[in-house]
Write the structure tokens for this entry.
Amino acid sequence: MINLANDHGGYSLGMKLFSKMVEKKLHIRHHGCCSSDISTDYPLFAKRVVEEVQFLNYAVGILVCGTGIGMCMAANRNSNVRAAVCHNITEAKLAREHNNANILCLPGRFMEFDDAWAITKTFLKTKFSEESRHVKRLEMFQ
């Protein structure tokens, strides 16, 4: 299950990603705002995705705001959440492989759709490596 949310700053990119995932018949739910016309509060949208992801090993999230940073900060305040702002494919791959990230955060105002889609596909297909060094480091989060 993929849970996507955006605020007003991430509306355009978020909706393009949502539409692409629907087209690809991915199991996706939208929890974000539905316009870029009115300023919205990104922590509220981050919370919606966090509530879906934090206790379900099979669920992942995608959060899109203006920079990706605010959503990431809001999400990471919660237990069992490992959100990462990713600007390229390599960061997305390593966030999953090394950090077992379960929420991808993207900068809606600073990223083109084609780049965001490539990053999202990488994030979704990459699995946690489960190497002992990475497991040990994640256990230190507790």
Observations:
- The radius of gyration is 14 Å.
- The mean pLDDT is 96.
- The longest strand covers residues 60-65.
